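Batch manifest, entry 17 of 40.
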Amino acid sequence: MPVEQGLAERIGAVSRQHELADPDRDLPLADRLINRAAELLGVGLLGGILAIVFANALSRYALNYSFVWAEEVVISLVPWLAVTGLFLSVRRRQMIRIEFFVDRLSPGARALLASAGQLLGAVMLAWVAWLGFNYVATFGGDRTPYLALPKGLFTSALWLGAAAVAVAFAGAAWHERRGRS
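Output type: structure tokens
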């Protein structure tokens, strides 16, 4: 076996082990519970969306019958799925950032920049939450076309999700300033 192949297999094994490891293993119990609840919500939403899409496709092509409400529900659940994923990625500090430039800074400047970025994210998402709340307050009572449900049930992701992510950003900034990773 060539040395490169053995190295590639070891790197692959370590990568798989890292990807399958519990990302919350070193967190306090309350943080682990919040993250697990967000994971379960995300998995439930994704599973529901996939089940609806699959059932509708199967019904359409096998029985020549389509559920007219399926697309409405899927489109309405996607924002909830998106903000759930965003919330969890902020809590786990897995947001995309450019390490190339940040790593060139001193540790103190790096921490300050990270805290400033987290606070900016919190302020921006709080603003989005405010705008989303106003939108839902104005248009949330409108009914969906097929199920006649209040659109506010689905568009509330605009403000509830943004508010939750703003709190997660603020918590990340607080942890950053306290020196915890």
